[in-house]
Amino acid sequence: MRLVVISLAIAAIVSLVGTPLLIALLARHGYAQAIRVSTDNEAYPDHESKRGTPSMGGVAILFGVLAGYLVTHLVTWRMPSPSGLLILYLMVGLGLVGVADDYLKIFKQRSTGLRARTKLIGQAVVAISFAVLSVQFPNESGETPASMAVSFLRDTPLVLPMGLFILWVWFLITATTNGVNLTDGLDGLATGAAFASFLAYVLVSIWQYGQSCFFEQTSFCYTTANPLDLAIVAAAGAGATFGFLWWNTSPARIFMGDTGSLALGGGIAGLAIFTRTELLLPFIAGLFLIVSVSVILQVGSFKLTGRRVFRMAPLHHHFEMLGWPEIQIVVRFWIIQGLCIGAGLALFYAEWVRS
What is the dihedral of CA 99, 100, 101, 102, to 10 degrees? Predict the structure, then answer.
């Protein structure tokens, strides 16, 4: 538990202190994201007040996560585990894809950033390499960071062949990263929701560590390869998002950009895979799923019928178009995320109690 607290504290301090330094650097050079404006054919919420706000704040989040994890191991003189390092690889790799996207938005003033195909290819390269590496590096018990079994609250009997496993991991990572990316449309919305998701994985990982098969072989022990190190990574993610939220909440002084949203989505998906709770992800990342579904419904309905389900997608912009204040939308969506996570953690704990 001490290691988890140290990781969270270091990540929070680095993010809290580093973000205003990044804001000053970006503002000095005028590096701000382009803002979409309404046209005769397409109406957008009025975000003119956000014009000139620096983007690419995900850099501060990534530095916070890296500092929280690595410094914790340095000061306690512990070797990092393959599980922890692979989560960092996934977050940094996807963060670099986001950097390329933010570069086009900031320097080229192209609000759409990378083309969708290019972004998906970049995500796929990182996700596939992560999938292959995740079934290497067995620990003393022979457990690799990931299992090729589909998991819910622990591994199920359904074991995938390598090809399907890679596709499964790619799907989980791509769906989660794009869910966070779509949710990142209002000040603090995605940051606060991601903070809650990381905290949930701190609790899951700590519980799995206490009931690990490494300590005692029972019928219901957890086979997670490095649960304590996963808790340290999750704590670093929670701390970094918490520190960043101070500056990202309304009115935002900086946006996380795709650098942050893709990295955070990757971290959440990676934790779901390594904690063997893949099918619990729709609860732990509940808000991101809801927002993604709203976009799928909007696009599908318009292509099939020519009619829109919502005034605008993603869902939070629909409520903006209805006249809801931004802060009201953000807080209510945070409540929804909290309810989803609460349901997920209740399922996780209830399975253990029934066992």
Answer: 50
Looking at the structure of the chain, the number of domains it has is 1
Task: Give yes or no for a contact between 263 and 92, defined as CB atoms under 8 angstroms apart.
Answer: yes
Confidence of residue 209 (pLDDT cuts 50, 70, 90): very high
**Cβ–Cβ contacts within 10 Å for residue 171, how many?**
12
Nearest to 271 by CA among 181, 341, 351, 185: 341
Both structure tokens of 263 = 């990295």
* Rounded distance between C-alpha atoms, residue 198 and residue 91, angstroms: 13
- Distance (Å, whole) CA 338 – CA 193: 8
Compute the residue count for the chain: 355
What single string gives the DSSP state of each residue in 63-113? HHHHHHHHHHHHHTT-PPPHHHHHHHHHHHHHHHHHHHHHHHHHHS--TT-
**pLDDT tier, 33 (very low <50, low <70, confident <90, very high otherwise):** low
Domain span holding position 253: 2-354
C-alpha 211/C-alpha 260 separation (Å) is 33
Cβ burial of 328 (10 Å; 0-12, 13-18, 19+) is exposed
138: tokens are 């067995």
Query: Model pTM?
Result: 0.93
Sign of CA dihedral 298, 284, 267, 273: negative
Q: With contact defined as beta carbons under 8 Å apart, do 152 and 277 qualify?
A: yes
Phi, psi of 323 (to 5 degrees): 100, 10
| CA 126 – CA 131 distance, rounded (Å) | 9
Calpha distance 245→263 (Å, rounded): 15
pLDDT at residue 38, as a whole number: 45
